Amino acid sequence: MTKDEFSDEYYMKEAIKEAKKAEVLAEVPIGAIIVMDGRIISRAHNLRENKQSAVAHAELLAIEQACKETGSWRLTNATLYVTLEPCAMCSGAIILARVDRVVYGAADPKGGCAGTFMNLLQDERFNHQSEVTSGVLEAECGQLLSDFFRQLREKRKLAKKQNLQ
């Protein structure tokens, strides 16, 4: 398989690897990669807790790294793969960076701004729109998040129980 023949599923598996890195750090397991000309030019995962930064989302970190890699803030001809549908902040950065295509795994009904809650990425009032492909390896991406939050609730419940004793 040549670099041009890799599928959306292949690249989403790479984003999932990033999400698993976040999970190891007790971060919400969201991962992102950016691909240009069939080559991964950046990788990132959520670091909000570790950095104590509201803007340390996987997508923003991947965009920042890709801009450094390319030497430009314009990421035309790039595809961003992310395990969870981008939020409003990340969608804004995607538009401003001129990312041509966004592929995401799990939908985010409470904050997804690539078509679920709202669709900033394809709003024609902006000077740039991104093509959006949703649901790539959706079950696997969603399961990572479900498992993480289930374990978090169990830990909190156990801690509360221990504090009552």
Structure in words:
- With 165 residues, the chain is of the alpha/beta class.
- Helix content is 42%, strand content 18%.
- It is built from five helices and five strands; from the N terminus they run αββααβαββα.
- It has helices spanning 8-24, 48-51, 58-70, 88-96, 138-164, and strands at residues 31-36, 39-45, 78-84, 101-106, 131-133.
- Strands 2-1-3-4-5 form a five-stranded mixed beta sheet.
- A hairpin with a 2-residue loop joins β1 (31-36) and β2 (39-45).
- α1 (8-24) packs parallel to α5.
- The longest helix has 27 residues, at 138-164.
- The mean pLDDT is 95.
Task: Name some characteristics of this structure.
single chain, 165 residues, alpha/beta, 5-stranded mixed β-sheet, 5 helices, 5 strands, 18% strand, globular
The multimeric state of the shown protein is single chain
Strand residue percentage: 15-25%
State the order of secondary-structure elements, H for helix, E for strand. HEEHHEHEEH
Mean pLDDT: 95
Give the CA-CA distance, first to last residue: 59 Å
Q: Helicity range of the residues?
A: 40-55%
Largest sheet: 5 strands, mixed
Strand order of the largest sheet: 2-1-3-4-5
Counted by DSSP, the helix tally is 5
Structural class of the helix and strand makeup? alpha/beta
Rg calculated over all Cα atoms: 16 Å
Q: How many β strands by DSSP?
A: 5
How would you sum up the global shape? globular
Unreliable stretches (pLDDT < 50, length at least 5) are none
